[in-house]
């Protein structure tokens, strides 16, 4: 079981090995920004990996293609960006993503 710490929310969640960061966030009732619904196409879910990058499964060709098309490959590597909908956890990791919040905060009365 891995731990994912999400900043600036300052929330740490547990995740089964092999699930994506976004899947783990959803399992814990968190909203994670997305436009494509987690298909690896939009980069809305992109997060910066602050610690534990080695504990994520290597970036696949599709993830790199999507990120590089939007931001350029050099910027992606320099900023340690990963797509939360594609990056699978294999150990503890800390990521930075603005806009992540409890899903119930989206309901209106
Ligand atoms: S949610 Fe669209 S690329 Fe991850």
In a few lines, what is going on in this structure?
The chain has helices spanning 21-27, 61-71, 73-79; strands at residues 2-7, 11-15, 30-31, 46-51, 81-83, 93-96, 101-102. With 109 residues, it is α+β, with helices and mostly antiparallel strands. The strands form 2 sheets. The chain has a 5-stranded mixed β-sheet. A two-stranded antiparallel ribbon has the order 3-7.
Describe this protein's structure:
The chain is 23% helix and 26% strand. With 109 residues, the protein is an alpha+beta fold. It has a single domain (2-102), classed as Roll (Ubiquitin-like (UB roll)), CATH 3.10.20.30. Strands 2-1-6-4-5 form a five-stranded mixed beta sheet. Strands 3-7 form a two-stranded antiparallel sheet. Strand 1 (2-7) and strand 2 form a beta hairpin. Helix 2 crosses helix 3 (73-79). The longest helix has 11 residues, at 61-71. The radius of gyration is 13 Å and the shape is globular. The model has no long low-confidence stretch (mean pLDDT 94). The structure holds FE2/S2 (inorganic) cluster. FE2/S2 (inorganic) cluster binds at residues 34-36, 38, 40-45, 66, 83, 85.
Attribute tags:
109 residues, alpha+beta, Ubiquitin-like (UB roll), five-stranded mixed beta sheet, 7 strands, 23% helix, binds FE2/S2 (inorganic) cluster
Order of helices and strands: EEHEEHHEEE
Q: Provide the list of bound ligands, each named once.
A: FE2/S2 (inorganic) cluster
User: In angstroms, what is the radius of gyration?
Assistant: 13 Å
Shape: globular
- How much of the polypeptide forms β-strand, as a percent range? 25-35%
Describe the strand arrangement of the main beta sheet, using strand numbers: 2-1-6-4-5
CATH topology: Ubiquitin-like (UB roll)
User: How many helical elements?
Assistant: 3
